[in-house]
Design a protein that fits this description.
single chain, 504 residues, alpha/beta, Rossmann fold, Dihydrodipicolinate Reductase, domain 2, 2 domains, 20% strand, EC 1.1.1.49, glucose-6-phosphate dehydrogenase activity, glucose metabolism, G6P_DH_AS, carbohydrate metabolism
Length: 504
Protein backbone atom coordinates (compact mmCIF):
# COMPACT_ATOMS: atom_id res chain seq x y z
CA UNK A 1 0.00 0.00 0.00
CA UNK A 2 1.09 3.54 -0.63
CA UNK A 3 1.63 6.18 2.03
CA UNK A 4 -1.27 8.37 0.93
CA UNK A 5 -3.84 8.46 3.73
CA UNK A 6 -7.50 8.06 2.76
CA UNK A 7 -10.00 10.83 3.35
CA UNK A 8 -12.15 11.22 6.46
CA UNK A 9 -15.61 9.86 5.70
CA UNK A 10 -18.58 7.87 6.89
CA UNK A 11 -18.76 4.22 5.80
CA UNK A 12 -22.36 2.98 5.82
CA UNK A 13 -22.62 -0.81 5.57
CA UNK A 14 -26.05 -2.13 4.56
CA UNK A 15 -26.16 -5.74 5.76
CA UNK A 16 -24.10 -4.81 8.80
CA UNK A 17 -24.88 -8.05 10.67
CA UNK A 18 -24.53 -10.33 7.66
CA UNK A 19 -21.95 -12.90 6.68
CA UNK A 20 -19.88 -10.65 4.40
CA UNK A 21 -19.58 -7.92 7.01
CA UNK A 22 -18.59 -10.36 9.76
CA UNK A 23 -16.16 -12.44 7.71
CA UNK A 24 -14.52 -9.79 5.57
CA UNK A 25 -15.38 -6.15 6.21
CA UNK A 26 -14.94 -5.75 9.96
CA UNK A 27 -11.74 -7.81 10.08
CA UNK A 28 -10.31 -5.81 7.14
CA UNK A 29 -11.18 -2.50 8.80
CA UNK A 30 -9.65 -3.65 12.09
CA UNK A 31 -6.45 -4.75 10.36
CA UNK A 32 -6.21 -1.37 8.64
CA UNK A 33 -6.80 0.34 11.99
CA UNK A 34 -4.03 -1.61 13.73
CA UNK A 35 -1.64 -0.91 10.84
CA UNK A 36 -2.44 2.81 10.87
CA UNK A 37 -4.17 3.06 7.49
CA UNK A 38 -7.62 4.29 8.52
CA UNK A 39 -8.39 8.00 8.30
CA UNK A 40 -8.50 9.56 11.78
CA UNK A 41 -12.17 10.58 11.64
CA UNK A 42 -13.61 7.52 9.88
CA UNK A 43 -16.91 6.36 11.34
CA UNK A 44 -18.59 3.07 10.37
CA UNK A 45 -22.37 2.70 10.51
CA UNK A 46 -23.62 -0.89 10.45
CA UNK A 47 -27.21 -0.96 9.21
CA UNK A 48 -29.28 -4.01 10.11
CA UNK A 49 -32.71 -5.23 11.18
CA UNK A 50 -31.68 -7.08 14.32
CA UNK A 51 -32.45 -5.61 17.72
CA UNK A 52 -28.98 -4.70 18.98
CA UNK A 53 -27.83 -1.95 21.27
CA UNK A 54 -24.44 -0.39 20.58
CA UNK A 55 -22.88 -2.56 23.26
CA UNK A 56 -24.59 -5.81 22.27
CA UNK A 57 -23.63 -5.26 18.62
CA UNK A 58 -19.99 -4.85 19.58
CA UNK A 59 -19.99 -7.86 21.87
CA UNK A 60 -22.13 -10.27 19.82
CA UNK A 61 -21.19 -9.31 16.24
CA UNK A 62 -18.01 -7.24 16.12
CA UNK A 63 -15.81 -8.96 18.72
CA UNK A 64 -16.48 -12.56 17.55
CA UNK A 65 -15.91 -11.41 13.96
CA UNK A 66 -12.45 -10.09 14.79
CA UNK A 67 -11.55 -13.02 17.04
CA UNK A 68 -12.39 -15.51 14.30
CA UNK A 69 -11.43 -13.82 11.04
CA UNK A 70 -8.87 -11.07 11.66
CA UNK A 71 -5.20 -11.73 10.95
CA UNK A 72 -4.48 -9.27 13.77
CA UNK A 73 -6.60 -11.02 16.40
CA UNK A 74 -3.60 -11.08 18.73
CA UNK A 75 -3.85 -7.28 18.90
CA UNK A 76 -7.43 -7.20 20.17
CA UNK A 77 -6.56 -6.53 23.81
CA UNK A 78 -4.78 -3.32 22.90
CA UNK A 79 -6.91 -2.14 19.99
CA UNK A 80 -10.47 -3.39 20.26
CA UNK A 81 -11.89 -0.61 22.42
CA UNK A 82 -10.49 2.34 20.39
CA UNK A 83 -11.57 0.59 17.18
CA UNK A 84 -15.06 -0.25 18.45
CA UNK A 85 -15.77 3.38 19.33
CA UNK A 86 -15.65 4.14 15.60
CA UNK A 87 -18.50 1.71 14.85
CA UNK A 88 -22.18 2.50 15.33
CA UNK A 89 -25.14 0.20 14.89
CA UNK A 90 -28.28 1.60 13.24
CA UNK A 91 -31.42 -0.51 13.26
CA UNK A 92 -33.84 -0.27 10.33
CA UNK A 93 -35.35 -2.27 7.51
CA UNK A 94 -33.82 -1.43 4.13
CA UNK A 95 -37.33 -1.23 2.65
CA UNK A 96 -38.60 1.32 5.20
CA UNK A 97 -38.49 4.89 3.76
CA UNK A 98 -38.75 6.40 7.22
CA UNK A 99 -35.68 4.41 8.21
CA UNK A 100 -33.62 6.19 5.56
CA UNK A 101 -34.87 9.55 6.80
CA UNK A 102 -33.77 8.69 10.34
CA UNK A 103 -30.48 7.35 8.99
CA UNK A 104 -29.90 10.63 7.16
CA UNK A 105 -30.29 12.61 10.37
CA UNK A 106 -27.95 10.23 12.18
CA UNK A 107 -25.30 10.61 9.48
CA UNK A 108 -25.45 14.41 9.71
CA UNK A 109 -24.94 14.21 13.49
CA UNK A 110 -21.91 11.94 13.06
CA UNK A 111 -20.45 14.14 10.31
CA UNK A 112 -20.65 17.20 12.50
CA UNK A 113 -19.15 15.43 15.50
CA UNK A 114 -16.37 13.66 13.58
CA UNK A 115 -15.55 16.33 10.96
CA UNK A 116 -16.12 13.95 8.04
CA UNK A 117 -16.90 16.90 5.74
CA UNK A 118 -19.96 15.21 4.24
CA UNK A 119 -17.98 12.40 2.57
CA UNK A 120 -19.95 9.15 2.41
CA UNK A 121 -19.36 5.58 1.27
CA UNK A 122 -22.36 3.27 0.96
CA UNK A 123 -21.36 -0.41 1.00
CA UNK A 124 -24.13 -2.76 -0.20
CA UNK A 125 -23.26 -5.97 1.66
CA UNK A 126 -26.73 -7.35 0.88
CA UNK A 127 -28.17 -9.83 -1.61
CA UNK A 128 -28.04 -8.64 -5.25
CA UNK A 129 -31.85 -8.36 -5.39
CA UNK A 130 -31.60 -5.49 -2.92
CA UNK A 131 -29.02 -3.38 -4.80
CA UNK A 132 -31.49 -1.45 -6.92
CA UNK A 133 -34.08 -0.78 -4.17
CA UNK A 134 -31.42 0.43 -1.70
CA UNK A 135 -29.89 2.82 -4.22
CA UNK A 136 -33.31 4.13 -5.19
CA UNK A 137 -34.16 4.77 -1.52
CA UNK A 138 -30.85 6.57 -0.98
CA UNK A 139 -31.73 8.89 -3.84
CA UNK A 140 -35.40 9.41 -2.94
CA UNK A 141 -34.73 10.19 0.73
CA UNK A 142 -31.92 12.63 0.07
CA UNK A 143 -28.94 10.65 1.40
CA UNK A 144 -27.32 11.23 -2.00
CA UNK A 145 -25.92 13.42 -3.29
CA UNK A 146 -23.78 13.88 -0.22
CA UNK A 147 -22.50 17.26 0.94
CA UNK A 148 -18.96 16.12 0.14
CA UNK A 149 -18.06 13.25 -2.17
CA UNK A 150 -20.06 10.01 -2.35
CA UNK A 151 -19.27 6.44 -3.41
CA UNK A 152 -21.22 3.19 -3.59
CA UNK A 153 -19.61 -0.25 -3.35
CA UNK A 154 -21.33 -3.18 -5.08
CA UNK A 155 -20.48 -6.83 -4.55
CA UNK A 156 -20.74 -9.42 -7.31
CA UNK A 157 -22.71 -10.79 -9.00
CA UNK A 158 -23.34 -7.73 -11.14
CA UNK A 159 -26.41 -9.05 -12.87
CA UNK A 160 -27.32 -12.54 -14.05
CA UNK A 161 -26.70 -11.80 -17.73
CA UNK A 162 -26.11 -8.74 -19.88
CA UNK A 163 -29.73 -7.43 -19.84
CA UNK A 164 -30.00 -7.70 -16.04
CA UNK A 165 -26.55 -6.16 -15.59
CA UNK A 166 -27.52 -3.26 -17.84
CA UNK A 167 -30.72 -2.70 -15.83
CA UNK A 168 -28.79 -2.73 -12.55
CA UNK A 169 -26.30 -0.28 -14.00
CA UNK A 170 -29.17 2.00 -15.06
CA UNK A 171 -30.50 1.98 -11.49
CA UNK A 172 -27.08 2.79 -10.06
CA UNK A 173 -26.48 5.59 -12.54
CA UNK A 174 -29.74 7.23 -11.47
CA UNK A 175 -28.03 8.11 -8.17
CA UNK A 176 -24.28 7.79 -8.79
CA UNK A 177 -21.92 8.65 -11.62
CA UNK A 178 -19.67 5.95 -13.09
CA UNK A 179 -16.64 7.26 -11.18
CA UNK A 180 -18.60 6.92 -7.93
CA UNK A 181 -19.49 3.24 -8.49
CA UNK A 182 -16.99 0.70 -7.11
CA UNK A 183 -17.78 -2.82 -8.34
CA UNK A 184 -15.74 -5.19 -6.19
CA UNK A 185 -13.99 -8.24 -7.55
CA UNK A 186 -12.10 -9.38 -4.46
CA UNK A 187 -9.61 -11.36 -6.58
CA UNK A 188 -8.15 -8.05 -7.74
CA UNK A 189 -7.26 -7.21 -4.14
CA UNK A 190 -5.06 -10.27 -3.69
CA UNK A 191 -1.35 -9.56 -3.39
CA UNK A 192 -0.13 -11.69 -6.29
CA UNK A 193 -2.85 -10.43 -8.63
CA UNK A 194 -1.57 -6.91 -8.04
CA UNK A 195 1.92 -8.26 -8.71
CA UNK A 196 1.17 -9.53 -12.23
CA UNK A 197 1.73 -6.14 -13.84
CA UNK A 198 4.95 -5.65 -11.89
CA UNK A 199 6.26 -9.08 -12.90
CA UNK A 200 5.49 -8.33 -16.54
CA UNK A 201 6.46 -4.72 -16.93
CA UNK A 202 9.30 -4.31 -14.40
CA UNK A 203 11.48 -7.21 -15.61
CA UNK A 204 13.42 -7.02 -18.84
CA UNK A 205 13.56 -10.78 -19.38
CA UNK A 206 9.77 -11.23 -19.27
CA UNK A 207 8.12 -8.54 -21.38
CA UNK A 208 10.06 -9.27 -24.63
CA UNK A 209 8.92 -12.92 -24.57
CA UNK A 210 5.36 -12.26 -23.34
CA UNK A 211 3.75 -13.03 -26.71
CA UNK A 212 2.81 -15.72 -29.22
CA UNK A 213 6.36 -16.05 -30.52
CA UNK A 214 7.54 -17.59 -27.25
CA UNK A 215 4.47 -18.64 -25.20
CA UNK A 216 2.84 -21.96 -26.10
CA UNK A 217 -0.27 -21.56 -23.95
CA UNK A 218 -1.62 -20.18 -20.67
CA UNK A 219 -3.42 -22.12 -17.93
CA UNK A 220 -5.51 -20.42 -15.24
CA UNK A 221 -6.90 -22.55 -12.43
CA UNK A 222 -9.10 -21.56 -9.49
CA UNK A 223 -9.98 -24.69 -7.54
CA UNK A 224 -11.78 -25.19 -4.25
CA UNK A 225 -12.10 -28.27 -2.08
CA UNK A 226 -15.26 -26.99 -0.39
CA UNK A 227 -18.78 -27.37 -1.71
CA UNK A 228 -21.34 -24.58 -1.72
CA UNK A 229 -21.47 -24.51 2.11
CA UNK A 230 -24.26 -22.09 3.14
CA UNK A 231 -24.54 -20.44 -0.29
CA UNK A 232 -26.67 -23.13 -1.93
CA UNK A 233 -29.63 -20.86 -2.61
CA UNK A 234 -27.47 -18.30 -4.40
CA UNK A 235 -25.15 -20.77 -6.09
CA UNK A 236 -27.92 -22.91 -7.55
CA UNK A 237 -29.16 -19.83 -9.44
CA UNK A 238 -25.70 -18.73 -10.53
CA UNK A 239 -23.39 -21.70 -11.12
CA UNK A 240 -19.66 -21.69 -11.75
CA UNK A 241 -19.93 -19.87 -15.09
CA UNK A 242 -21.57 -16.77 -13.60
CA UNK A 243 -20.02 -17.04 -10.14
CA UNK A 244 -16.41 -17.41 -11.27
CA UNK A 245 -15.74 -17.27 -15.01
CA UNK A 246 -17.61 -14.06 -15.85
CA UNK A 247 -15.70 -12.05 -13.26
CA UNK A 248 -12.72 -13.62 -11.50
CA UNK A 249 -11.22 -15.73 -14.28
CA UNK A 250 -11.78 -13.21 -17.07
CA UNK A 251 -10.19 -10.54 -14.87
CA UNK A 252 -7.10 -12.74 -14.56
CA UNK A 253 -7.06 -13.16 -18.33
CA UNK A 254 -7.08 -9.38 -18.80
CA UNK A 255 -4.15 -8.85 -16.44
CA UNK A 256 -2.06 -11.56 -18.09
CA UNK A 257 -2.88 -10.49 -21.65
CA UNK A 258 -3.20 -6.69 -21.53
CA UNK A 259 -0.86 -4.39 -23.42
CA UNK A 260 1.44 -2.08 -21.44
CA UNK A 261 -0.72 0.89 -20.39
CA UNK A 262 0.41 4.39 -21.28
CA UNK A 263 0.64 5.10 -17.54
CA UNK A 264 -0.46 3.60 -14.24
CA UNK A 265 -3.39 5.99 -14.10
CA UNK A 266 -6.67 4.23 -13.36
CA UNK A 267 -8.33 4.74 -16.72
CA UNK A 268 -5.19 3.84 -18.68
CA UNK A 269 -5.04 0.44 -16.94
CA UNK A 270 -8.77 -0.16 -17.31
CA UNK A 271 -8.69 0.75 -21.00
CA UNK A 272 -6.14 -1.98 -21.72
CA UNK A 273 -8.16 -4.57 -19.78
CA UNK A 274 -11.29 -3.76 -21.79
CA UNK A 275 -9.36 -4.15 -25.05
CA UNK A 276 -8.53 -7.75 -24.06
CA UNK A 277 -12.17 -8.60 -23.34
CA UNK A 278 -13.26 -7.08 -26.64
CA UNK A 279 -10.62 -9.17 -28.42
CA UNK A 280 -11.92 -12.51 -27.13
CA UNK A 281 -12.97 -14.77 -29.98
CA UNK A 282 -16.77 -15.18 -29.68
CA UNK A 283 -18.07 -18.68 -29.04
CA UNK A 284 -21.02 -19.90 -31.09
CA UNK A 285 -22.98 -23.01 -30.13
CA UNK A 286 -20.60 -25.34 -32.00
CA UNK A 287 -17.54 -23.77 -30.35
CA UNK A 288 -19.20 -24.02 -26.93
CA UNK A 289 -19.90 -27.72 -27.45
CA UNK A 290 -16.28 -28.31 -28.37
CA UNK A 291 -14.33 -25.92 -26.16
CA UNK A 292 -16.40 -25.45 -22.98
CA UNK A 293 -16.82 -28.26 -20.46
CA UNK A 294 -19.25 -28.19 -17.56
CA UNK A 295 -19.59 -30.55 -14.63
CA UNK A 296 -21.40 -31.12 -11.38
CA UNK A 297 -19.89 -33.05 -8.49
CA UNK A 298 -21.36 -36.22 -7.09
CA UNK A 299 -20.49 -37.93 -3.84
CA UNK A 300 -16.81 -38.56 -3.15
CA UNK A 301 -13.95 -37.99 -0.76
CA UNK A 302 -12.11 -34.79 0.19
CA UNK A 303 -9.18 -35.18 2.59
CA UNK A 304 -10.37 -38.75 3.34
CA UNK A 305 -13.79 -37.48 4.38
CA UNK A 306 -16.90 -38.63 2.52
CA UNK A 307 -18.87 -35.66 1.20
CA UNK A 308 -22.38 -35.55 -0.32
CA UNK A 309 -23.20 -34.79 -3.95
CA UNK A 310 -24.13 -31.27 -4.98
CA UNK A 311 -27.80 -32.19 -5.34
CA UNK A 312 -27.94 -33.01 -1.63
CA UNK A 313 -26.42 -29.73 -0.48
CA UNK A 314 -28.59 -27.37 1.56
CA UNK A 315 -30.98 -25.22 -0.54
CA UNK A 316 -30.03 -27.01 -3.77
CA UNK A 317 -32.72 -28.55 -5.97
CA UNK A 318 -32.58 -32.38 -5.93
CA UNK A 319 -32.59 -32.44 -9.75
CA UNK A 320 -30.41 -29.36 -10.21
CA UNK A 321 -28.63 -28.90 -13.54
CA UNK A 322 -26.39 -26.13 -12.18
CA UNK A 323 -22.71 -26.56 -13.03
CA UNK A 324 -20.13 -26.62 -10.24
CA UNK A 325 -17.18 -26.93 -12.65
CA UNK A 326 -16.24 -25.18 -15.87
CA UNK A 327 -13.23 -25.63 -18.12
CA UNK A 328 -12.83 -23.77 -21.38
CA UNK A 329 -10.42 -22.82 -24.11
CA UNK A 330 -10.45 -19.29 -25.44
CA UNK A 331 -8.40 -17.21 -27.86
CA UNK A 332 -7.51 -13.53 -27.89
CA UNK A 333 -7.55 -12.23 -31.42
CA UNK A 334 -4.89 -9.58 -31.41
CA UNK A 335 -1.32 -9.29 -32.63
CA UNK A 336 0.31 -10.33 -29.35
CA UNK A 337 -1.76 -13.43 -28.61
CA UNK A 338 -2.95 -14.75 -31.98
CA UNK A 339 -2.92 -18.55 -31.92
CA UNK A 340 -2.14 -18.90 -28.18
CA UNK A 341 -4.85 -20.86 -26.33
CA UNK A 342 -5.86 -19.79 -22.83
CA UNK A 343 -7.20 -22.72 -20.81
CA UNK A 344 -9.37 -21.82 -17.81
CA UNK A 345 -10.86 -24.08 -15.16
CA UNK A 346 -12.68 -23.57 -11.90
CA UNK A 347 -14.78 -25.76 -9.69
CA UNK A 348 -16.04 -26.92 -6.32
CA UNK A 349 -15.00 -30.12 -4.54
CA UNK A 350 -11.73 -30.45 -6.44
CA UNK A 351 -8.67 -32.22 -4.99
CA UNK A 352 -6.81 -29.10 -3.80
CA UNK A 353 -7.50 -25.47 -3.03
CA UNK A 354 -5.38 -23.41 -5.40
CA UNK A 355 -5.50 -20.38 -7.64
CA UNK A 356 -2.60 -20.02 -10.04
CA UNK A 357 -1.59 -18.84 -13.48
CA UNK A 358 0.84 -20.91 -15.56
CA UNK A 359 2.53 -19.66 -18.70
CA UNK A 360 4.14 -22.50 -20.62
CA UNK A 361 6.81 -21.39 -23.07
CA UNK A 362 7.41 -23.06 -26.40
CA UNK A 363 9.81 -25.98 -26.48
CA UNK A 364 13.19 -25.83 -28.14
CA UNK A 365 13.92 -28.18 -31.04
CA UNK A 366 15.39 -31.57 -30.11
CA UNK A 367 19.00 -30.86 -30.97
CA UNK A 368 22.44 -31.20 -29.40
CA UNK A 369 22.60 -33.80 -26.64
CA UNK A 370 19.17 -33.21 -25.13
CA UNK A 371 17.55 -36.48 -26.18
CA UNK A 372 20.49 -38.53 -24.98
CA UNK A 373 20.80 -36.90 -21.56
CA UNK A 374 17.24 -36.54 -20.39
CA UNK A 375 13.87 -35.17 -21.29
CA UNK A 376 13.82 -31.44 -21.94
CA UNK A 377 10.93 -30.07 -19.90
CA UNK A 378 9.15 -26.88 -21.01
CA UNK A 379 9.99 -23.64 -19.30
CA UNK A 380 7.18 -22.45 -17.04
CA UNK A 381 6.33 -19.26 -15.24
CA UNK A 382 3.96 -20.02 -12.37
CA UNK A 383 2.20 -17.23 -10.49
CA UNK A 384 0.63 -18.56 -7.30
CA UNK A 385 -2.28 -16.51 -6.00
CA UNK A 386 -3.57 -18.71 -3.13
CA UNK A 387 -3.11 -20.35 -0.70
CA UNK A 388 0.60 -19.97 -1.36
CA UNK A 389 1.53 -16.56 -2.75
CA UNK A 390 4.53 -16.29 -4.97
CA UNK A 391 6.12 -16.97 -8.31
CA UNK A 392 8.56 -19.47 -9.71
CA UNK A 393 10.28 -20.20 -12.98
CA UNK A 394 11.00 -23.74 -14.16
CA UNK A 395 14.28 -24.12 -16.05
CA UNK A 396 16.35 -27.01 -17.40
CA UNK A 397 19.81 -27.57 -15.95
CA UNK A 398 22.50 -30.22 -15.62
CA UNK A 399 22.13 -32.49 -12.62
CA UNK A 400 25.16 -32.38 -10.31
CA UNK A 401 27.59 -35.24 -10.95
CA UNK A 402 29.87 -36.65 -13.58
CA UNK A 403 27.23 -37.15 -16.25
CA UNK A 404 25.33 -34.56 -18.27
CA UNK A 405 21.83 -35.62 -17.28
CA UNK A 406 19.31 -32.80 -17.59
CA UNK A 407 16.69 -32.12 -14.91
CA UNK A 408 14.16 -29.35 -14.30
CA UNK A 409 15.02 -26.85 -11.58
CA UNK A 410 12.90 -24.13 -10.00
CA UNK A 411 13.77 -20.57 -9.16
CA UNK A 412 11.20 -20.06 -6.44
CA UNK A 413 9.87 -17.13 -4.42
CA UNK A 414 7.12 -17.67 -1.87
CA UNK A 415 5.72 -14.57 -0.24
CA UNK A 416 3.85 -16.17 2.65
CA UNK A 417 5.82 -19.35 3.38
CA UNK A 418 8.05 -17.89 6.06
CA UNK A 419 6.95 -18.05 9.68
CA UNK A 420 5.35 -14.80 10.77
CA UNK A 421 4.54 -13.57 7.28
CA UNK A 422 0.83 -12.73 7.02
CA UNK A 423 -0.15 -10.90 3.84
CA UNK A 424 -2.93 -8.31 3.95
CA UNK A 425 -6.34 -9.64 3.00
CA UNK A 426 -7.87 -8.59 -0.34
CA UNK A 427 -10.61 -6.57 1.35
CA UNK A 428 -8.02 -4.51 3.22
CA UNK A 429 -6.56 -3.18 -0.02
CA UNK A 430 -9.97 -2.70 -1.62
CA UNK A 431 -11.51 -0.81 1.30
CA UNK A 432 -8.37 1.30 1.56
CA UNK A 433 -8.64 2.18 -2.13
CA UNK A 434 -12.33 3.09 -1.84
CA UNK A 435 -11.57 5.47 1.01
CA UNK A 436 -8.82 7.20 -0.94
CA UNK A 437 -10.77 7.25 -4.19
CA UNK A 438 -8.62 4.92 -6.31
CA UNK A 439 -10.84 2.67 -8.50
CA UNK A 440 -7.99 0.93 -10.37
CA UNK A 441 -8.71 -2.47 -8.77
CA UNK A 442 -12.46 -2.18 -9.35
CA UNK A 443 -14.42 -3.10 -12.44
CA UNK A 444 -15.65 -0.44 -14.85
CA UNK A 445 -19.04 -0.86 -16.53
CA UNK A 446 -17.63 -1.56 -19.98
CA UNK A 447 -15.54 -4.40 -18.48
CA UNK A 448 -18.69 -5.92 -17.00
CA UNK A 449 -20.53 -5.47 -20.29
CA UNK A 450 -17.78 -7.07 -22.39
CA UNK A 451 -17.48 -10.02 -20.00
CA UNK A 452 -21.21 -10.74 -20.18
CA UNK A 453 -21.10 -10.46 -23.98
CA UNK A 454 -18.57 -13.30 -23.98
CA UNK A 455 -20.30 -15.45 -21.34
CA UNK A 456 -23.95 -15.13 -22.36
CA UNK A 457 -23.60 -17.25 -25.55
CA UNK A 458 -22.14 -20.06 -23.44
CA UNK A 459 -25.15 -20.04 -21.11
CA UNK A 460 -27.50 -19.88 -24.10
CA UNK A 461 -25.85 -22.89 -25.76
CA UNK A 462 -26.10 -24.87 -22.54
CA UNK A 463 -29.81 -24.11 -22.24
CA UNK A 464 -30.36 -25.92 -25.53
CA UNK A 465 -28.38 -28.99 -24.43
CA UNK A 466 -29.43 -30.51 -21.07
CA UNK A 467 -26.46 -31.91 -19.14
CA UNK A 468 -25.93 -35.38 -17.74
CA UNK A 469 -25.13 -34.61 -14.10
CA UNK A 470 -23.39 -35.50 -11.88
CA UNK A 471 -20.39 -36.29 -14.06
CA UNK A 472 -17.44 -36.15 -11.67
CA UNK A 473 -16.92 -37.41 -8.16
CA UNK A 474 -15.95 -35.00 -5.40
CA UNK A 475 -12.18 -35.07 -5.10
CA UNK A 476 -11.56 -35.38 -8.85
CA UNK A 477 -10.40 -32.71 -11.31
CA UNK A 478 -13.77 -32.35 -12.94
CA UNK A 479 -15.25 -34.59 -15.66
CA UNK A 480 -12.94 -36.55 -18.00
CA UNK A 481 -13.82 -34.18 -20.85
CA UNK A 482 -11.88 -31.43 -19.04
CA UNK A 483 -8.70 -33.46 -19.42
CA UNK A 484 -9.48 -34.21 -23.06
CA UNK A 485 -9.78 -30.48 -23.73
CA UNK A 486 -5.97 -30.25 -23.50
CA UNK A 487 -5.00 -33.78 -24.43
CA UNK A 488 -6.46 -33.41 -27.92
CA UNK A 489 -4.16 -30.37 -28.35
CA UNK A 490 -1.12 -32.39 -27.23
CA UNK A 491 -1.04 -30.67 -23.82
CA UNK A 492 -2.09 -31.44 -20.25
CA UNK A 493 -3.18 -29.61 -17.13
CA UNK A 494 -0.21 -29.09 -14.85
CA UNK A 495 -0.97 -30.66 -11.48
CA UNK A 496 0.27 -29.56 -8.10
CA UNK A 497 2.54 -32.56 -7.59
CA UNK A 498 4.38 -31.54 -10.77
CA UNK A 499 4.72 -27.91 -9.78
CA UNK A 500 5.21 -27.36 -6.08
CA UNK A 501 8.80 -27.70 -4.89
CA UNK A 502 9.44 -29.51 -1.67
CA UNK A 503 9.93 -27.30 1.35
CA UNK A 504 11.80 -28.25 4.44
Amino acid sequence: MGLERPYNCLLVIFGGTGDLARRKLYPALFNLFVDGFLPPALRVIAVGRRNFTQDSFRQEILLPSLQTFSRRASDLDAHFEPFATRLHYFRTDIYDPEGYTRLGRFLVELEEAADCQGNRIFYLAVAPDHFGPVVRSLKETGLVPARGWQRVVIEKPFGHDLPSAAELNRQLRAAFSEVEIYRIDHYLGKEMIQNIMVIRFANTFFEPVWNNKYIDHVQITSAETVGVEDRGGYYDRAGALRDMVQNHLLQLVTLVAMEPPASLATEAVRDEKVKVLRSLRPLDAAAVNRNVIRGQYGAGEIDRQTVPPYRREKEVAPDSTTETFVALKLFIENFRWAGVPFYLRTGKRLPVKVTEIILQFKSLPDILYFKEYGELRPNLLVIRVQPLEGVYVQLNAKRPGNNNYIVPIRLDFCQNCEVGVNSPEAYERLLYDVMRGDPTLFTRWDEVEAAWQFVDPIAAAWMARPPLFPNYAAGQWGPPAAQELLIRDGRHWWQEDELLPERG
